Amino acid sequence: MADFQNCGSCSSSLLELFERVSAQGEKVRSLKAVKASTDEIDAAVKLLLSLKVTYKTATGQDYKAGSPPVDFSPVSSNGPAATQDEDFVDPWTVQTSNAKGVDYDKLIDRFGSSKIDKELINRIERVTGQTPHRFLRRGIFFSHRDMNQILDAYENKKPFYLYTGRGPSSEAMHVGHLIPFIFTKWLQEVFNVPLVIQLTDDEKYLWKDLTIQKASEYAIENAKDIIACGFDINKTFIFSDLDYLGMSPGFYKNVVKVQKHVTFNQVKGIFGFTDSDCIGKISFPAIQAAPSFSASFPQIFKDKKDIQCLIPCAIDQDPYFRMTRDVAPRIGYLKPALLHSVFFPALQGAQTKMSASDPNSSIFLTDTPKQIKTKINKHAFSGGKDTIEEHRKHGGNCEVDVSYMYLTFFLEDDDKLEQMKQAYTSGALLTGELKKVLIETLQPLIAAHQQRRKQVTDEMVKQFMTPRKLAFDF
Ligand code: TRP
């Protein structure tokens, strides 16, 4: 238990503050659980964030659910911990007050990961002999853990495998959801390695107002979109938790090993669970951890327990894998390596990531060319000026302009992107013209995805999702 001896008189008010933050966190969770309106949730999240900032200013420590304040050393008001614009990132909430989006350098410091710098990108290029993917060139995958170890293994002809996943919360996937899969496909191609994809239908059943039946159906529908990204059927195993756990003793044994080595206090600290969360949620992180260990897939890796794993994911998933890396050596396994991406911004701006429940916040994989055009023209937040005259005179701001941000994700041509940045910043290129380029980039991309998805048959889905040996000998 925490002890509050350091500051007899201030402990009660700090403890009160701690409790206010906990209660507000609880409120946000319950608003989300009952699907309250976005406005109501946003307001509650804002209050939560400001309480967290107050807490940090007062204690000099990040608020950690389940760990009341221990050591009170208030930081000076101009200290690094006292900034008013602290971002908040966990697997369920991404919030920042900055229109440029989350401060990812700060996140690297807070999470204790490493930056993907020029040197690492050059090494990837040297080792693979391939031009680094635009997501690497443009800092979209920006952070990592132990990537050099993976490259060492690859150079020494030691095998590794890829693991990524998706929580099937609805049928509708949007372009942002494709980011990890597009990148994972590239990694699979350049390194020629096995890939496992976890569909956490169990997670979505536990967190959302969904029946088991619906969650399973969404898993299958999402699997089709994932397959449409072009994964090699001979090198890829896709599984739904609700299905695979019941038929894989190897997998379940690893879940239980993780469960034995992580305490309730630890998951409270990492994920903000409270005493009133159901036990399914509390134990779920063990299920997302298990695919990081090759022993969870004996059909692919036989009895090999030491094949290293590399996980490409959005940075909000890192809490799961911090936990995984912490337990791995204690249960005799290697720590998985990670590559983290930034979030894909909502059309309305980079303060938050896109939400599948708000149709106007995203471009969906099912949108028609016309819908894409209308959404971008109507909703994409512009960093341009209010009038053409002003825009020509002062130029636009690419740092907050969502159409420009989307182009950094999807326009392959580096030179063209740079030209547009310069022209937009100088005022030569207008917002409408920039939007037109984005519309013309996304329309064919989405149409091609829809074509490929149409060709994905139920038989193919079944094959991808059947536990089997892949095209690698272990
Ligand atoms: N929890 C993730 C989500 O809600 C899904 C997931 C499971 C995942 N395992 C993963 C994502 C591994 C990235 C990497 O979307």
TrEMBL record:
Gene Ontology CC: cytoplasm
Entry GO MF terms: ATP binding; tryptophan-tRNA ligase activity
All residue ranges annotated as the WHEP-TRS domain in the record: 13-69
A single BP term in Gene Ontology: tryptophanyl-tRNA aminoacylation
Alphabetical UniProt keywords: Aminoacyl-tRNA synthetase, ATP-binding, Ligase, Nucleotide-binding, Phosphoprotein, Protein biosynthesis
PROSITE patterns in the cross-refs: AA_TRNA_LIGASE_I, WHEP_TRS_1, WHEP_TRS_2
Short name of any one Pfam family annotated for the protein: WHEP-TRS
Domain of life the protein comes from: Eukaryota
Spans annotated as Disordered: 62-84
Coiled coil feature spans: none
Enzyme Commission (EC) number: 6.1.1.2
UniProt family annotation: Belongs to the class-I aminoacyl-tRNA synthetase family.
Protein name: Tryptophan--tRNA ligase, cytoplasmic
Source organism of the structure: Pelusios castaneus
Organism lineage string: Eukaryota, Metazoa, Chordata, Craniata, Vertebrata
